[in-house]
Design goal:
Elements: H1 2-20, H2 31-36, H3 39-47, H4 56-59, H5 63-69, H6 74-93, H7 98-122, H8 137-145
Length: 146
Amino acid sequence: MAEEHKHEESIMEKIAEKIHGHDASSSSDSDDDKKASSPSSIKTKIYRLFGREKPVHKVFGGGKPADIFLWRNKKVSGGVLGAATLSWILFELLQYNLLTLFGHISILALAVLFLWSSATTFIHKTPPHIPEVHISEDVHISMLLD
């Protein structure tokens, strides 16, 4: 019984040494195998999905696009997802056209600018200075003749 207990302890010690990379009794191990079983390489393999060489952030090109795709900046990623969903709903489900969308946006922009310029008289604020462009009579006549 004591022999069996010692045998189990020696097996457990060997397993623990193999895991921690402290087994120097085997002379057939190459240097590469020892490096691969070191704790630092085991730790790096844990954090790499499927044992890849590069992290996922670098695979996606790094920078802001990778941050958005990997949801590191949640507000920007949510905005991109919301804009893509809204455009999909507009163009696919509602069958809205891009030219119609640009037309409606420009009409809305003109209405807002008109209301803004009209509201400046009611709140007694000076409207923004828009420079006037004058074309001289000589330039106007030469353009007509060409």
